[in-house]
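dumping this here so i dont lose it
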């Protein structure tokens, strides 16, 4: 008997056997069958699944799709999983699952527990998700938070799909921006000792640089001071980067994000490291050319509209050059089968050329997926919030988490497609009402927990509940929604569209609220979870337990808590 993970395969096989039976009976011509096309319809009024196979067979079979649909439906054998199929113009086969099959899914969810809806599509495959990777020259802002929520949720979805997943933060601790950071830090450090030092014209003017200099002064005193007019010591900049990375790590941990690896850009340039190896490989293939004193990657020969500089005339690698080395390390050295880079939308022009370079170093171009996300606009009271309350500059991720909480921030960041600009309503995110989708979903979990707790106080548990007693439309509707989780996860890992997660969470919460409130809507006390009918109460408690497991799973994949009380 199939479960929620392989019901599609089961139905495809059932449909395929029906076609072969019709061919054997001479009712359909022996033509190639182009897949059974089992899908979940948007409108489930006519069935849980539908097939467009008759429409796809019509040309080859030289028969009207509706006639083919009727023939196939007639040859679908009686089966304990589905009711008798129905057909609809212009040639759909509608399939409805039996109540018995739906009821058994409650037991499947409970047996699976926290691993409910786990998939195997990524089995024996390694995936890496690199996200945030903001320059360690300042605190994380709300835009970084959106990237963090997207990357972390995708990593969790991939893990649920069977991938061996590694979360990575690429620390940009080399290059011109770190030099400017070090100069700014030294200027602020000198100012703390009364020197009249100016920050560089293109430096970092934020108040956080003063705080960082103060932190270093408290730690090392005047140990980093040099005679006036001399540049600051190199190790001051390095120490500043270390401290900024520490602050970034704390901000992300407060947001619920933990990485498996913090990858130093400097390590790319180690002797016999990724940069040397990637460059040597491209030279060997004749894809590096010297021109105008710089080194160029001949990407136009591989389909790009122009060549790109990888090493400047001063001998320093460009961002593109370091990215090629970094992805050489991902694909060739570490052997990831799938690499996802979560970047801000301003990197759009870099995507195609990085895919081209990845192919040049021996990786599958399609194994690299770059997910771009748009900016975030914060609103309070209908007005755009532009400045930090504290520093008058960017609004930090820490400030957002402090105001609305990590759960609300993550949910709202995930709610819109990464490619869509989003408005984050701070007032809505803090509302304790069903208007707030975060509250709506988490409150559903708290209600589920409360029902089980209240039942236990009355000596009732889900143990031994007979799920065959679950026959009400609201009960079966909740089961149907729970069954969607595996499909949603599979879709997320195939399309890289994490916005499906919060929308499914809301749909599941809605199905639970409809089930739990059915007695009020129909003015029928017998529809309560806990009634005088002990057998029916235990059956419904079993459904409540399964729903709690399902809702906790989707919340967990989004990186949110599943509260038992609110």
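and the seq i came up w/
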């Amino acid at each position: 008997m199939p479960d929620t993970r392989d019901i599609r395969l089961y139905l495809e096989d059932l449909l395929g056997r029906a076609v072969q039976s019709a061919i054997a009976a001479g009712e359909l011509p022996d033509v190639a069958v182009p897949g059974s096309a089992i899908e979940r319809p948007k409108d489930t009024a006519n069935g849980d699944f539908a097939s467009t196979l008759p429409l796809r067979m019509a040309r080859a079979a030289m028969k009207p799709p509706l006639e083919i649909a009727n023939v196939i439906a007639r040859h679908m054998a009686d089966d304990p999983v589905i009711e008798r199929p129905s057909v609809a113009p212009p040639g759909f086969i509608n399939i409805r699952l039996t109540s018995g099959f739906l009821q058994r899914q409650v037991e499947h969810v409970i047996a699976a527990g926290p691993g409910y809806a786990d998939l195997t599509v990524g089995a024996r495959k390694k995936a890496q998700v690199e996200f945030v990777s903001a320059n360690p020259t300042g605190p994380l802002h709300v835009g970084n938070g959106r990237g963090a929520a997207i990357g972390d949720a995708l990593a969790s979805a991939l893990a649920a799909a069977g991938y061996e997943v590694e979360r990575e933060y690429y620390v940009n601790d080399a290059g011109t921006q770190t030099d400017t950071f070090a100069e700014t830090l030294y200027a602020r450090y000198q100012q703390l000792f009364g020197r009249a030092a100016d920050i560089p014209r293109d430096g970092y003017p934020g108040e956080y640089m003063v705080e960082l200099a103060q932190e270093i002064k408290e730690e090392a005193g005047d140990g980093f001071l040099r005679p006036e007019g001399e540049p600051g010591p190199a190790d001051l900049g390095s120490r500043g980067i270390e401290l900024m990375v520490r602050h970034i790590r704390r901000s992300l941990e407060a947001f619920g994000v933990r990485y498996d690896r913090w990858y130093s850009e400097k390590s790319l340039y180690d002797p016999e490291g990724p940069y040397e190896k990637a460059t040597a490989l491209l030279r060997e293939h004749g894809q590096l050319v010297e021109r105008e004193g710089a080194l160029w990657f001949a990407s136009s020969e591989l389909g790009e509209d122009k060549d790109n500089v990888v090493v400047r005339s001063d001998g320093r690698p460009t961002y593109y050059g370091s990215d090629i080395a970094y992805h050489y390390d991902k694909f060739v050295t570490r052997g990831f089968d799938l690499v996802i880079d979560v970047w801000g939308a301003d990197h759009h022009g870099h995507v195609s050329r990085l895919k081209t370079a990845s192919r040049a170093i021996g990786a599958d171009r399609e194994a690299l997926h770059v997910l771009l996300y748009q900016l975030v606009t914060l609103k309070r009271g209908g007005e755009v919030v532009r400045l930090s309350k504290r520093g008058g500059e960017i609004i930090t991720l820490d400030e957002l988490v402090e105001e609305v909480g990590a759960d609300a921030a993550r949910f709202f960041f995930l709610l819109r497609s990464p490619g869509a600009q989003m408005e984050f309503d701070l007032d809505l995110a803090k509302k304790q009402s069903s208007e707030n989708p975060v509250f709506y979903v988490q409150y559903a979990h708290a209600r589920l927990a409360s029902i089980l707790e209240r039942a236990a106080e009355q000596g009732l548990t889900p143990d031994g509940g007979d799920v065959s007693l679950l026959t009400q439309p609201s009960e079966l509707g909740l089961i149907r929604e729970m069954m969607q989780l595996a499909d949603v996860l599979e879709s997320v890992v195939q399309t890289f569209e994490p916005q499906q997660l919060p929308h499914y969470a809301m749909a599941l919460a809605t199905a639970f609220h409809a089930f739990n409130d059915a007695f009020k809507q129909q003015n029928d006390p017998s529809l309560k979870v806990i009634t005088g009918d002990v057998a029916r109460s235990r059956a419904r408690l079993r459904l409540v337990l399964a729903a709690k497991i399902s809702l906790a799973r989707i919340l967990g994949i989004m990186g949110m808590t599943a509260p038992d009380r609110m």
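Residues 132-269+374-430 form a domain with the Rossmann fold fold (CATH 3.40.50.620).
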